[in-house]
C-alpha cells in the first residue's frame, strides 16, 4: 500500500509514539490523518500545524459506542493504526492489582480487538487496506517486572494472527510492530537501551509499503527475536533472572 494519499486513523495519537505516527504519515503524503485521543483537545497544537490533514477525533478504545461512532463517521479510512496502549509495570504475584490487570487487558487486548472488528468492514469497503498494531517484543516472552502488560500484549499478538487469517480474504494487510523499549513516557522507569519513537514509526510505515507482517524495530528487538528463534527457553530464563538481581 502506498502512503501517499492514504486516509489514516491513529489511536492514542497524543502519546509518545502516536505523535510520531502523525508526523510520519504527514511526511509520507497521507491525505488525511484522523488523530484519536480520549481528550482531542490535547491534539489542538499539532492539528493547528496542518488543519486540512490532521483531524483530532474523540476516541476511547475501551468504549464500544465511541469505537462504533468512529467507524461510522470515518468510513473513508484505509489505514488503521492501533497504537493506544497502557502499561503499569506490574508483577503477577507480588502486589498484584486486578484493576490494573483489567485495564491492560481492556486497552491492549480488547480495545485493539474492538477497533479491528469495527474497522474491518470499513477497510473492506475501501479496497482492503492495512491495520498496524503496536505490540512489543515482550508479547513473545514475559518480562516478570512488567508481567501483566506482557500477558495483555501476548493476547493481542495471538488475536492479531487470527484477525490476519480472517481478513486475508478481503485483502487487509495486518501488521504487528514489536519493538523493545521505546523512548517515551511509558518507559520512563526503564533503563536504556531505548529505540527512538521516530525509528519505530519509520519501520512500521516501511512495513506498510513493503507488505511486511512482523516488524522488529531497533537492535534490542531484533536481537531478542533472533535469540527467541534460536532458544526460547534460554530467553525466558534470562528474563526470569532479572528478578534475582
Ligand atoms: N514505550 C515503550 O517502551 C513501548 C514499547 C513497546 C510497545 N509500546 C506500545 O506502543 C504504544 C504507544 O505507547 P507509547 O510509548 O507512545 O505510550 P504513551 O506515551 O503512554 O501513549 C499511550 C497512548 O495510548 C492512549 N490510550 C490509553 N488508553 C486509551 C484508551 N482507552 N483509548 C484510547 N487511547 C488510550 C493514551 O492516551 P491518554 O493521553 O488519553 O492516556 C496515549 O495517547 C502502546 O501500545 C505501547 O504498549 C511501547
How would you portray this structure in words?
The protein has 245 residues and is α/β, with parallel strands linked by helices. The protein has helices at residues 16-27, 44-48, 64-73, 98-125, 147-167, 197-210, 219-230, 232-244; strands spanning 7-10, 32-37, 54-58, 79-82, 130-134, 173-177, 214-215. It has a seven-stranded parallel β-sheet, sandwiched between helices. The protein is globular and about 55 Å long. 43% of the residues are buried. The model has no long low-confidence stretch (mean pLDDT 97). The chain binds NADP nicotinamide-adenine-dinucleotide phosphate (NAP). NADP nicotinamide-adenine-dinucleotide phosphate binds next to helix 1 and helix 4.
Q: Level of helix content?
A: 40-55%
Widest sheet: strand ordering:
3-2-1-4-5-6-7
Mean pLDDT: 97
Determine the strand fraction and express it as a percent band: 5-15%
Q: Would you report the number of β strands? A: 7
What would you say about this model in short?
The protein is of the alpha/beta class and 245 residues long. The chain has helices at 16-27, 44-48, 64-73, 98-125, 147-167, 197-210, 219-230, 232-244; strands spanning 7-10, 32-37, 54-58, 79-82, 130-134, 173-177, 214-215.
Give a topology summary.
Layout: E1 7-10, H1 16-27, E2 32-37, H2 44-48, E3 54-58, H3 64-73, E4 79-82, H4 98-125, E5 130-134, H5 147-167, E6 173-177, H6 197-210, E7 214-215, H7 219-230, H8 232-244
Parallel strand pairs: 1-2, 1-4, 2-3, 4-5, 5-6, 6-7
Bound molecules: NADP nicotinamide-adenine-dinucleotide phosphate.
